[in-house]
Amino acid sequence: GEKLVVMAGMNVLESRDLAMRICEQLKAVCERLDLPYIFKASFDKANRSSITSYRGPGLDEGLRILADVKAELGVPVITDYHTAEQAQLVADVAEIIQVPAFLVRQTDLVVAGAEAVMKTGGWLHVKKAQFLAPWDCKNIVSKIGEVTGPDNPTILCERGASFGYNNLVVDMLSIPAMKALGVPVTIDATHAVQLPGADPRTAGGSTGGRREGVPIIAKSAVAAGADGVFLEFHPDPDKALCDGPSCLPLDGAEALLADLKAIHSIVNA
Amino acid sequence: GEKLVVMAGMNVLESRDLAMRICEQLKAVCERLDLPYIFKASFDKANRSSITSYRGPGLDEGLRILADVKAELGVPVITDYHTAEQAQLVADVAEIIQVPAFLVRQTDLVVAGAEAVMKTGGWLHVKKAQFLAPWDCKNIVSKIGEVTGPDNPTILCERGASFGYNNLVVDMLSIPAMKALGVPVTIDATHAVQLPGADPRTAGGSTGGRREGVPIIAKSAVAAGADGVFLEFHPDPDKALCDGPSCLPLDGAEALLADLKAIHSIVNA
Amino acid sequence: GEKLVVMAGMNVLESRDLAMRICEQLKAVCERLDLPYIFKASFDKANRSSITSYRGPGLDEGLRILADVKAELGVPVITDYHTAEQAQLVADVAEIIQVPAFLVRQTDLVVAGAEAVMKTGGWLHVKKAQFLAPWDCKNIVSKIGEVTGPDNPTILCERGASFGYNNLVVDMLSIPAMKALGVPVTIDATHAVQLPGADPRTAGGSTGGRREGVPIIAKSAVAAGADGVFLEFHPDPDKALCDGPSCLPLDGAEALLADLKAIHSIVNA
Amino acid sequence: GEKLVVMAGMNVLESRDLAMRICEQLKAVCERLDLPYIFKASFDKANRSSITSYRGPGLDEGLRILADVKAELGVPVITDYHTAEQAQLVADVAEIIQVPAFLVRQTDLVVAGAEAVMKTGGWLHVKKAQFLAPWDCKNIVSKIGEVTGPDNPTILCERGASFGYNNLVVDMLSIPAMKALGVPVTIDATHAVQLPGADPRTAGGSTGGRREGVPIIAKSAVAAGADGVFLEFHPDPDKALCDGPSCLPLDGAEALLADLKAIHSIVNA
Predict the structure, then answer these.
(1) Residue B236: how many CA atoms within 13 Å on its side-chain side?
(2) Which residue in chain A is spatially nearest to D170 when comparing CA positions?
């Protein structure tokens, strides 16, 4: 009987205005569809392929924008943190703080996040690493539980597993496998379609994507039992400053979310 | 606007009576749900892990049972063939003849199948091999098209890709990738959940399965755009003579197929 | 104390003259290096990607050429067979008959091969399939042993495992894992470097290769304990009618085989 | 004509005495074999599967032990760092500082390491992540080169790639692929044989290993062109406080290193 949770917004913060615009529009869509909505944006892309890629406004300016969005639009927000030191600062603004996939095995980072959200009453959104089996998330959930006690604030997120070089695959069986750990599970359909790394056959130095695959993965994962979706939009995806190739057009959000809601209703009837 | 096609039945033919019973029940379910139904059963499991495993009644007796089922219950049937010589014999009984996954690269086998269905007006159901990329099915579709001309009778079937040792993964993006080749695509959710081969940590000599994953994969794949589903049932799955661990209980068929129909309606609206 | 076995020759038979030339030269190299030599060539490429690819001279003409090579140069030969019917015909000419990788799970084919070599006193060279774990070869060795009794004539061959789409990887730990089954193990370095299938980013319809990787894989595998090597050469690799991209130049054979012999001596000291 | 470089020691620092003992013995072995030797030990295992696993003595005490080993035995040392803040502290003691595999995409960490070794004249040993293609290491080498200029102090290390769940595979072709980036390449044979994560079929919460595979991978990789080896030893591997299952017995070091030296001579002749 639970509603499908929507974590949606933009990849990296580009400007205060764009954040407001995207959040406002997605909030309205989710209100019309009666779906709980959380605004997502990153303040720092700390692991870009290339040193010259755009990384975002940084911690201070980024948290300021997120606080503004919350104040003005009244929505909860989710954003990632990258060091143990950032955990509390981020949790003081964001209801949900996110552990990046590559960092999920860093004990100090995970523990700092757990301590931070315990103080704020927030949640930890943990991206399952590309190198991790779904059942191995048990160790991460346990690390967090050691800090927080039985009310474990973990949400696990599927975002694809390494499948040979320069490719990811989403194993839909990972969703029930992670749900079996007793926590909610989301699908990050945006990052799951990325073709990671530079293709040796092209000159490219940034991470490729497959935009048309995002709705496929989102629908499949909800059909497989995902409790929430994580999606990135842009009014003009090809001009997004980061990960444009896997970014969805903002004006397609309502149709996609309506389908996802309908599938979620069927599998949770 | 197309309806979801249901290819369903049993793994290997165990007896004429059991084939009748399973077909009758599934036919009734599909009539209630208004879904096109094709009965599936194999006469020979030609690639069992172990030489002592049950292989089925063989070609002659198997085709006799399939012909009886057709005559008595008035449904089309699908079954696999394993050599070029068998192609026409099988196509003379079965509306759809199936190329086993491991054999999809055998040119003579594929060509013989194409020639056979061209005579009968039937179809070729080609299981995508565990070692094959979805876009590489193009070569198989082309081989068949060389024989049959523009009315290509190929249906491609996703049944999982090798994912490390002793595991398969279903890449849901393979479904649109195969549909892009201009042919219908089905999901064999039953075989896709198998854990192939003997696990070195157990003594086992036959192929494992994960029954609870079958509905997950089926729902996900229909959400990803599959045109049909391929499913194996048994009144008492744990007593099935082949692949019991990935076999569904017959009395659960209606609930699952109803969900699949509903998801199919949403994504094809 | 055993010597490294060399199975080497050409991919597909192109002409009687070329077969003689390649065999003569490789035989001379192996005599200088004091390594046992077996001539390899295929009479039919039964699983080419494209229906229009060159397949070879076929069974009759192919076996005639192989018999001529044996008669004239006095070397044993290895070639593959593709159906149960071909097994005895091939074993009557070739001391070693080869089960193609995709076909290793076909019980009838394997059993026919075992029966054939039992009559001739030959061997079965079984390519481990791209979808098979090394320990799962146990079932194949057992199927052959059921026919032949305790003097099991199986040689297992590593030729790469599926690693995502359009790529193979050689897991060097597979070599001791297969040797643990009590049979000799070879490395097919030529096919192990192939990039299987059509790359979606190119128009190509045949299987790619990486010639410069062949010596790397061969040396690594011998260092990992392989008892033999399987290599394909051509006087002009870029003009080879099949798999040229993974074919080695004939005049480089001696330097490579000398290195392999030296590594083999170290790891077997 | 270069000699094979040996980075060897223990997994995590257990005590000052044990570090001295292991280093002294390995130093003596490498002197006898005329191989350049660098002592390896970690002060913190920052990404253990379980929160209750032994992590080591920590930064201060760990660096003190490493400095003592250097002072007493006169060998260079290598150890890993886990945050940007640790980079300079570690580089002030260790000639080679190591970027852990999971962290190679963290730009700030890599840049801090590059700045630190530029001051000390040391090197950065970068473990290729399990999710990274070898050619994608180009971006990491470039990030470091942006800081250091043309005398790029990067050494790339192969330690296995994700191969399905709970398994790694070493692609020997990654070694020439990384060497093609213009930097030396080592093989971490110890970590490459790990079976990462908790096996769902056992109760285990720590990372498994396959000790007998370590020499296989080391020999294979040197045969494939590796310039150095990275190996962990213990006088009593089954009592090692971390990663015992993939740890080699100290008294087997000389025989293994002698083989590796001999293979290295052949492939570099």
Answers:
(1) 4
(2) A164
Q: Note whether B142 contacts C48, CB cutoff 8 Å.
A: no
Q: What angle do CA B155, B176, B258 make, to 5 degrees?
A: 75
Amino acid at B83: T
Residue among B167, B199, B201 minimizing CB distance to D165: B167
For B169, the closest chain D residue by CA position comes to D164
Question: How many residues does this entry show for chain D?
Answer: 269
d(CA A72, CA D36): 63
CB-based contact, D142 to chain A, within 8 Å: yes
- B202 → chain D, closest CA residue: D201
Element (H, E) at A253: helix A253-267
**Active-site amino acid positions of D:** 11, 45, 243
Higher pLDDT, B200 or B116: B116
> Which sign does the torsion angle of CA B59, B60, B64, B65 carry?
negative
- Collect all residues of chain D within an 8 Å Cβ-Cβ radius of residue C225: 216
Distance from chain centroid for Cα D211:
16
Query: pLDDT (tens digit, 0 to 9) for every residue of chain A, 269 residues total?
Result: 599 999 999 999 999 999 999 999 999 999 999 999 999 999 999 998 888 889 999 999 999 999 999 999 999 999 999 999 999 999 999 999 999 999 999 999 999 999 999 999 999 999 999 999 999 999 999 999 999 999 999 999 999 999 999 999 999 999 999 999 999 999 999 999 998 875 544 444 556 668 999 999 999 999 999 999 999 999 999 999 998 889 999 999 999 999 999 999 999 99
Take residue B23 and report the two structure tokens written for it: 């077909």
B135 touches chain D (CB under 8 A): no
Question: Does D165 touch chain B if contact means CB atoms closer than 8 Å?
Answer: yes
Are the C-beta atoms of A234 and A244 separated by less than 8 Å?
Answer: yes
User: Which pLDDT score is estimated for C209?
Assistant: 67
**pLDDT tens readout for residues D80-112:** 999 999 999 999 999 999 999 999 999 999 999
Q: Would you say D133 and D162 are in contact if contact means Cβ atoms under 8 Å apart?
A: no
| 3-state SS assignment for residue A175 | helix
| Domain with residues D5-267, CATH architecture | Alpha-Beta Barrel (3.20)
The residue type of B220 is S
CA distance C251 to C238: 14
Could you identify the residue written with the tokens 């090597």? C229
What confidence tens digit (pLDDT) does each residue in C17-42 have? Answer: 999 999 999 999 999 999 999 999 99
In chain D, what are the domain boundaries?
A: 5-267
Contact flag B220-A221 (C-beta cutoff 8 Å): yes
Beta-carbon separation of C220 and D172 below 8 A = yes
Of C83, C133, C197, which has the smallest distance from its Cβ to B83's Cβ?
Answer: C83
**What does the pLDDT read at residue B204?**
46
Q: How many helices (H) and strands (E) does chain D have?
A: 9, 11
Q: From residue D246, give the alpha-carbon distance in Å to each of A133, D38, D55, D130, D234.
A: 20, 20, 17, 17, 10
- Residue D65's identity, in one-letter code, is I
Across the interface, whether the CB atoms of B107 and C55 are under 8 A apart is answered: yes
CB < 8 Å to D219, chain C: 223-224, 267
Render C65-85 in DSSP notation, one character per residue.
Answer: HHHHHHHHH---EEEE--STT
Question: CB–CB of C165 and A167 under 8 A?
Answer: yes
DSSP bridge pairs for B187: B158, B229
pLDDT tens, position by position, D35-63: 999 999 999 999 988 888 899 999 999 99
The answer to whether C167 contacts A164, with C-beta atoms less than 8 Å apart, is yes
The residues, ordered by sequence, that sit 6+ positions from A225 with a Cβ below 8 Å of its Cβ are A175, A176, A179, A185, A267, B216
Residue-wise pLDDT tens digits, D202-257: 444 556 668 999 999 999 999 999 999 999 999 999 999 998 889 999 999 999 99
At a CB cut-off of 8 Å and minimum separation 6, what does A155 contact?
Answer: A96, A123, A124, A125, A126, A183, A184, A185, A186, A228
